[in-house]
Amino acid sequence: MNAVTSSRSACTFGEYAKSMGRYLFDQNVDVVTRMLENLQSFI
């Protein structure tokens, strides 16, 4: 494995981690908003 391949894989891994983080963040926001809606209807 040469330097170009390793740097390219690191770059793709960074993009993958960023997209995964954004996906998890969106999921958490969705869950939190749903919980808040349930709390409002419960109150």
From TrEMBL:
It comes from the Bacteria. This is Uncharacterized protein. It comes from Pseudomonas cannabina. The lineage of its organism: Bacteria, Pseudomonadati, Pseudomonadota, Gammaproteobacteria, Pseudomonadales.
